[in-house]
Amino acid sequence: MISNSTFQARRAKLMAQCRPSSLVIVPAASQVTRSNDTEYPFRQDSDFWYLSGFNEPDAVLVMSNQLEGNKIQHSAVLMFVQPKDAHAEVWHGRRLGTASAPKELGLDEAYSLDSIEELLPELLNGHEHLYFSLDRNPAADALVQAALAECKAAPKQSMMAPNTIIDVGPILHQMRRIKSDAEIALMREAGIISADAHKRAMRFVKPGAFEYQLEAEIHHEFAMRGARYPAYGTIVGSGNNACILHYTENSEQIKDGDLILIDAGCELQGYAADITRTFPANGKFSAPQKALYQLVLDAQLAALEQLKPGNTIADGMKACVSVITHGLVDLGILSGEPEDLIESEAWRTYFMHGLGHYLGLDVHDVGIYKHQGNDLPLEAGVVITVEPGLYISEQSKAPKQYRGIGIRIEDDIVIHATGHEVLTASVPKSICDIEELMGSANTL
């Protein structure tokens, strides 16, 4: 659980990085219609959640560091929220309301969302700079543009609109890139829940089951552990379906001899886990499956050795590609000198994505990967995925025994001062450990 004091500290850190005489506006997400008068489950905007921990739609967080003498002219932190409404709450659920929001959320003031069109021009007035991310939220864009226009159109310059608009995203996203101990603890728990869900799927599967049944087992484990929703669309790809990177149909019947690739992670209090495991439907890898699987695992282990402070994700990718390429030559899938094949990126035919990505409030989390053209070094508190793969489609020119096999192995790691911690280590990934887990399930 992230404490209220943590949200307050984050807001203060953000405001300290803004220019003096600035107003910062961060809108919440809105409810999204699914069809007619039903909505998708509400998911809060990640930036808004990071700064507030407030899970109602359509709120607007406003922060000021404008000074008059030694005093803040406007409230430092305020929020526009949906007002209490007994009738609406019967239908759509409880609202925090303006009276309770300041104490519950650690704000200076709270106002009804109904008053934002009237009050926002007054809040903008006199600030030199506006920090706001344009083109992310159309409703908020329109609201801010209208308030700016009203300030500029005020008679006899009675109001002063900000003269610069600065994207708050880069500052906020650099903050989000480095996780606190509390965030890492949540992500560790999300990793454990997700790992247990993968083990549940391994124990459940048998030839003849359907991909969607494994998806249901995984989602059941998430929900029963307090993580009601997956962090992204769950992938359960059996056989050649595993060669489709973002396969989410999950509709095929699983055949004896298939490998099954599952890419699934839960979301816990806003924070994502992201795990991929590949395992045999019948509990035993065939010889070609075993050869390819061990190659991907060796590539992941080589990458993991490089992922520590001062090194980059690219260092991990380089180690991974070396292992993959040499292995593909050894198996007769690629031909030529490994170093030439690495240089020409011939391996991309079978490993077409990157090594991993940032992980946090978004499954593909925010934060830059390069600075001034150079790869950004890893540092303590960064959480990333490590997910090499091989995808040899049925149309491939590879030797016949390898066609139709897709394999990915993905773990989540947090960088520490001297190395890294694998947050998802509790789900097996060695061939012997997977076969042992699946064998023990079949004897129950």
> Describe the biggest sheet?
6 strands, mixed
Structural class: alpha+beta
Terminus-to-terminus distance: 37 Å
Percent of residues in beta strands: 15-25%
Corresponding CATH superfamily of the largest domain: Creatinase/methionine aminopeptidase superfamily
What is the CATH-assigned architecture of the largest domain?
Alpha-Beta Complex
Mean pLDDT: 95
- Return the CATH topology of the largest domain: Creatine Amidinohydrolase
- Using the coordinates above, name the CATH class of the largest domain: Alpha Beta
Your description of this structure?
The protein is built from 13 helices and 23 strands. With 444 residues, it is of the alpha+beta class. The chain folds into two domains: 172 residues, 3-Layer(aba) Sandwich (Creatine Amidinohydrolase, Chain A, domain 1); 265 residues, Creatine Amidinohydrolase, CATH 3.90.230. The chain has a six-stranded mixed beta sheet with strand order 8-7-4-1-9-10, with helices on both faces. Strand 14 and strand 15 form a beta hairpin. The longest helix is centred in the middle third of the chain and has 24 residues. It is elongated, with a radius of gyration of 25 Å. It starts with a helix and ends with a helix. The mean pLDDT is 95.
